[in-house]
Design brief:
Elements (H helix, E strand, L loop, with lengths): L1 E8 L14 E4 L6 E8 L2 E9 L2 E3 L5 H8 L4 H5 L3 E7 L6 H5 L10 H19 L4 E13 L2 E4 L14 E4 L2 E4 L5 E2 L3 H12 L17 E12 L2 E11 L13 H26 L10 H5 L7 E9 L6 H11 L9 E2 L2 E2 L15 E4 L4
Parallel strand pairs: 1-5, 1-14, 6-13, 6-14
Antiparallel strand pairs: 2-3, 3-4, 4-17, 7-8, 7-11, 7-12, 9-10, 12-13, 15-16
This protein binds adenosine-5'-diphosphate (ADP) and magnesium ion.
The site of magnesium ion has 3 residues, from helix 3.
Family: Belongs to the TRAFAC class myosin-kinesin ATPase superfamily. Kinesin family.
Protein name: P-loop containing nucleoside triphosphate hydrolase protein
Subcellular location: Cytoplasm
Length: 365
C-alpha cells in the first residue's frame, strides 16, 4: 500500500479578484519542484507556517496537468490488479468537486471522466493486442455516505430507506448489501449514468456555501479482465469528500451539527489511516469509520492519492490551516529551523514514500 498526499491551490474566481491571497506554493530550495504550502500564522502575521507535501499544484495548474501527474501513472497498475483510491479533501468551496468531476467542457473535465476515458482506451487496446482473447469489462457503483449512512446514488431518491444500506463482512471484506452495480460499455454510457446519479446526491445549504456537500460521494470503477477462465479484478475509487470546515463558526442548526459530527469523525479516521499507511504501520484503523471500512483502506494492495484542495483567500484562513494540519502528517518529525532556508529532516523512508511534514518557519528578516 502506498500513499501520496498532494495539495492543489485553486485560482481566484472572477468575483474574488480583489481578495487578499495568503496561501502560496513554494519549493524547498530554488529549482526544486513545488512541495511546500505557505500560510501566515493567524496569531502573528510576521510568521509563516510551512507544510510539506509530496507535491503542490499552483493556481495555474490545469485539469489535464493534475491528471497527467497524479492519476495517469497509476492506470497501468490498475490493469495489473492493484486498487487505486483517489480522495479530494478540503473545505467547501476549495475545488474538490471541480477536481474530481470538473466542468462539462473538455479541458475542464476532472479526474473522474479522465480516469474513465483512460480505462476504456486501455481496455480497447488490451482487446486488440490479444486479438480479443482478453476482454475488459467496466462496472460502476456510486454511493454516498451521509450521516454515517450509505445511500445508493444509482437508485432514485424515492427508493431510499431512511436507515441506508447495511454493511456485511464477506471473506474479510466489507460489502454494502444491496448496492447496485452497472456495467458501462463506453464513455458515453458512463457519462449518462454519472450525470443522472449526481442529481441524486444529497446537498443541503449552509451559510458558508449554498450547495455545500455534506456527504462523501464514492464512485467505484470495477475493472474485470477475462482471459479464458482467468479473471483479474481491480477497483479504482474516486471520492469527493464532505467539506472539512469547522461548523461551529457557521451558525448551523441541529441538523447541521449532527452532520458535522459524522463528517468530523469519518475525516478524522481517514487522516489516521493515511498517517498509518504512510508510516508503513501494520495496523491501519480503517474499521473505525464506515467510509474507510467499505474502502478497506489499508487492507488492499494498492495506491492511495489524497488531494488537499485549498482556496488561497484570507476568508478561509482558519479552515485552511486546520485542513493543512490534518493532511500534513508526521508532526513528530523534527524540522531544523534555519533562517531563509528550509531544511527538512526526512522522515524514515518506507515503501510508501515520504510523509508530509509540518513545520514552523522563522520569519524572514
Ligand atoms: P468544493 O467541491 O470543494 O466545495 P467546488 O469544486 O465546487 O468546491 O469549487 C468552488 C468553485 O471554485 C466552483 O465555482 C468551481 O468551479 C471553482 N473552482 C474550483 N477549482 C477551480 C480551478 N482549479 N479552476 C477554476 N475554477 C475552480
Ligand atoms: Mg463539492
Amino acid at each position: 500500500m502506498s500513499v501520496r498526499v498532494v495539495a492543489r491551490i485553486r485560482p481566484l474566481l472572477e468575483k474574488e479578484l480583489d481578495k487578499d491571497v495568503i496561501v502560496r506554493a513554494d519549493a524547498v530550495e530554488e529549482g526544486r519542484p513545488m512541495t511546500v504550502v505557505k500560510i501566515p500564522n493567524p496569531k502573528n502575521e510576521s510568521e509563516e507556517f510551512s507544510f510539506a507535501f509530496n507535491s503542490v499544484y499552483e493556481q495555474t495548474t490545469t485539469q489535464e496537468e493534475l491528471f497527467t501527474a497524479e492519476v495517469a501513472p497509476h492506470i497501468k497498475a490498475l490493469f495489473q490488479g492493484l486498487d487505486v483510491t483517489i480522495f479530494a479533501y478540503g473545505v467547501t468551496g476549495t475545488g474538490k468537486t471541480h477536481t474530481m468531476r470538473g466542468g462539462l467542457r473538455l479541458a475542464e473535465r476532472g479526474v473522474i471522466p479522465r480516469l474513465l476515458s483512460n480505462v476504456y482506451r486501455r481496455g480497447k487496446k488490451i482487446g486488440k493486442d490479444t486479438n480479443g482473447e482478453t476482454t475488459v469489462n467496466v462496472a460502476l457503483s456510486y454511493y454516498e455516505i451521509y450521516n454515517d449512512k450509505v445511500f445508493d446514488l444509482l437508485e432514485p431518491p424515492e427508493k431510499r430507506t431512511p436507515s441506508g444500506l447495511p454493511l456485511r463482512e464477506k471473506d474479510g471484506k466489507t460489502i454494502v448489501v444491496g448496492l447496485s452495480e452497472r456495467s458501462c460499455e463506453d464513455l458515453k454510457d458512463f457519462e449518462r449514468l454519472y450525470i443522472e446519479a449526481n442529481n441524486n446526491r444529497v446537498t443541503a445549504s449552509t451559510k458558508l456555501n449554498a450547495h455545500s456537500s455534506r456527504s462523501h460521494a464514492i464512485l467505484r470503477v470495477k475493472v474485470t479482465q477475462t482471459t479464458g477462465d482467468m479473471v483479474r479484478e481491480s477497483t479504482a475509487s474516486a471520492i469527493d469528500l464532505a467539506g472539512s470546515e469547522d461548523n461551529r463558526r457557521t451558525e448551523n442548526g441541529k441538523q447541521r451539527l449532527i452532520e458535522s459530527a459524522a463528517i468530523n469523525k469519518s475525516l478524522f479516521v481517514l487522516s489516521q489511516c493515511i498517517d498509518a499507511i504512510s508510516r508503513g504501520d501494520r495496523r491501519i484503523p480503517y474499521r473505525e469509520s464506515k467510509m474507510t471500512r467499505i474502502l478497506s483502506l489499508g487492507q488492499n494492495n494498492g495506491i492511495t492519492i489524497m488531494i488537499l484542495n485549498l482556496a488561497p483567500m484570507r476568508s478561509y484562513h482558519l479552515d485552511t490551516l486546520s485542513s493543512l494540519n490534518v493532511s500534513s502528517r508526521a508532526k513528530r518529525i523534527e524540522v531544523r529551523e534555519i533562517e531563509n532556508e528550509v531544511v527538512f529532516k526526512q522522515p524514515p523512508r518506507t515503501n510508501s514514500g515520504t510523509a508530509a511534514t509540518a513545520m514552523k518557519r522563522q520569519p524572514l528578516r
